[in-house]
Design a protein that fits this description.
alpha/beta, single chain, 10 helices, about 290 residues, Nucleotidyltransferase, domain 5, 12 strands, 2 domains, four-stranded antiparallel sheet, about 30% helix
Amino acid sequence: MDDCIQQLEATGDYRIIKRFKPVSYYLKNNDTKKNIGIFLDTETTGLDSDSDHIIEIAMVPFEFDLDGHIYALLPEYNELNDPGISIPAVITQITGITDEMVKGRSINLDTVKNLLSDAVIVIAHNASFDRPFCENLLDEFKDFPWGCSIADINWQEEGMEGAKLEYLAYKYGFFFEGHRATIDCQAGIEILSRPLFKTGELALKRLIDNAQRTDFRLWAESAPFDKKDQLKKKGYRWSPGENGKRKAWYLDLPEDDLENEMIYLNTNIYTRAVDILPMDRINAKLRYSTRI
């Protein structure tokens, strides 16, 4: 079979992708210092963490070193959760999870705490979505380093046209039935174990390095209303001032870019020179949280 696959792919007219089969380890144990990361995924009743609820959570711990090598996958935790409301039909269609499946089920918060106590980072494929739900579930998620396998790897620079998990899996030569929490986590770890397409750097190494960075959120307070289109084009986002946050346009950027951004704002946005604007420091313990 492998010979046939190689012959087909050698013609340049065929590309074979294989069904993903989760593994228990990638590299055998050695004396390298290892850390534990957790790949996490949630299925929910909707997109709004303020009004929707988790209906399934998966946490798959794995051993890794700071060079991005993944070793063993440790025993995972998966649980369905009764949200207390009827699951919307569209969510059942996507996930296959029904009201009957979650009835009377609940997440064991002590188990979640124990898993977090051994880990140094939680990774999600779209942490901006999963983190707020998890923070509502358990306070321990709030002061914990997070990484994102979408935002902490520039997939576009690596030649990818998108960053959806199923698409990346296809580009790496495998497929899986997505939208159930555990298999999504295992597929995410598989992708992180691979080298990036252009640089050859391990995907997990790139994620770890980017997760450790410190960014700054620059608030363009009192920016003229007629400059909103320029700010949007530059990448600024609007904060409506809810839940005690500032009501202003903001941009997240590295510290090295702050000086040039202030020059841009003074030259193109403000009608008078502005020496100081509010800034928030953002690291892995705050990134992707709704608290900022």
